[in-house]
Design goal:
24 helices; Serine Threonine Protein Phosphatase 5, Tetratricopeptide repeat; elongated; mainly alpha
Length: 369
């Protein structure tokens, strides 16, 4: 049996230092695991810890959990007797400043990284502790040093939406265009959190908005994907290429059309986005929208002149896409805008033949009139 948090009863007993419960479970053949040992350092029951150590060796999580639970005597024992070291994040995440400051004062280099590959400044930025961030910067912390995954303190602040921390790091000349292992910049992270306030600060500092992540997505494309209208509006105040595309040749407009983000579709079109841009398969925004039955987007694109009869590389049109997916509402809109129901794809299928084969009676009736 496991709790809602995924812990077994014996793990839970260890976590809370419930010695009698733990012993009862052991007598009834409950299995002690490494996870049980690690959780024992939350509960800090010496009896439970020793029982677990009969079967397993100490792990890094043991000292991390002891720090997070403020069992500082146990932490010091693990350090002196077993030569373990703890991370910056554990001290700051749990506000265990009694463990943070001694570690800080022992540093020869304030930019040195811990067992997690993080500096003190990165950990403080992840947690959003403004006074600690200021302290570290005043002591000479390098604001652009990345962690083991090449992610900077600013990227962490953006991801966690810590506005004041981001402001401090920007003012301290952090690298605004740093990229991590996913090639995400601080702007990418701000947008995925829909943090338009942080994004505005970055844009005001002329951050590079043309950087593609490993999937080929720019900040504008991520904004479309995330349906972040406020962020999109900020990005569109800058002179950016609206036709930048990802590995599938999808633009921000195609992404917004796929998500039925009509407000973003409108904003992009008003800024000059190409409504006939083709992806790697020759699909246009209205075709993608029709296939997903995104009726509002289909209606808007058709109303401003999108080609409802464009054929992709397989000969399919927006209406055939709608038929393939039984997108009846989008099909009705396309028919209203004079979509050709007789066009055949490369398999010589028409909307009617697809509807008949799949038993889509509403679409069959629609195009049989």
């Amino acid at each position: 049996m496991r709790t809602s948090g995924g812990l077994s009863l014996i793990d839970l007993s260890a976590q809370f230092g419930a010695t009698k419960c733990f012993n009862f479970l052991v007598l009834n053949n409950a299995k002690i695991t490494v996870r049980t040992l690690e959780n024992a350092f939350f509960g800090n029951s010496k009896e439970i810890i020793l029982k677990c150590l009969e079967q397993f060796d100490l792990t890094q999580n043991c000292i991390e959990y002891a720090v997070r639970s403020h069992h500082n005597k146990t932490v010091k024992t693990l350090m002196t007797k077993y030569n373990f070291k703890y991370s910056w994040y554990s001290t700051l995440y749990s506000f265990n400043l009694k463990m943070f400051y001694p570690k800080l004062h022992s540093l020869e280099n304030i930019n040195s990284k811990d067992e997690n590959g993080e500096t003190a400044l990165i950990a403080a930025s992840r947690v959003g502790l403004v006074p600690i961030v200021r302290l570290l910067i005043n002591r000479g912390a390098n604001v652009s040093v990345p962690d083991s995954k090449f992610k900077t303190a600013l990227s962490w602040a953006c991801e966690e939406n810590f506005i004041e921390v981001a402001k401090i790091l920007i003012e301290a000349k952090s690298n605004l265009n740093s990229t991590d292992k996913y090639n995400w910049t601080p702007a990418h992270y701000a947008i995925i959190q829909n943090s338009h306030r942080i994004l505005q600060m970055l844009v005001d500092k002329n951050v590079d908005l043309s950087i593609h992540d490993l999937n080929g997505k720019t900040p504008l494309m991520v904004s479309s994907y995330n349906s972040a209208i406020e962020c999109t509006k900020i990005l569109l105040t800058k002179q950016i290429n609206l036709e930048e595309n990802d590995r599938n040749n999808w633009t921000a407009l195609i992404i917004a059309s796929a998500n039925n983000s009509v407000n973003i579709v409108r904003a992009l079109v008003e800024s000059g986005a190409n409504i006939e841009h083709e992806d790697k398969w020759g699909n246009t925004p209205i075709m993608i929208a029709a296939g997903k039955n995104n009726t509002e987007t289909v209606t808007f694109l058709a109303s401003i002149g999108a080609n409802v009869n464009h054929q992709n590389r397989n000969g399919k049109t927006a209406l055939i896409f709608a038929a393939d997916n039984n997108s009846i509402e989008s099909a009705k809109v396309l028919v209203d805008f004079k979509a050709d129901v007789e066009i055949e794809d490369m398999n010589r299928d028409t909307v009617l033949s697809i509807a008949k084969r799949n038993g889509f009676k509403e679409i069959q009736a629609l195009v049989s009139d």
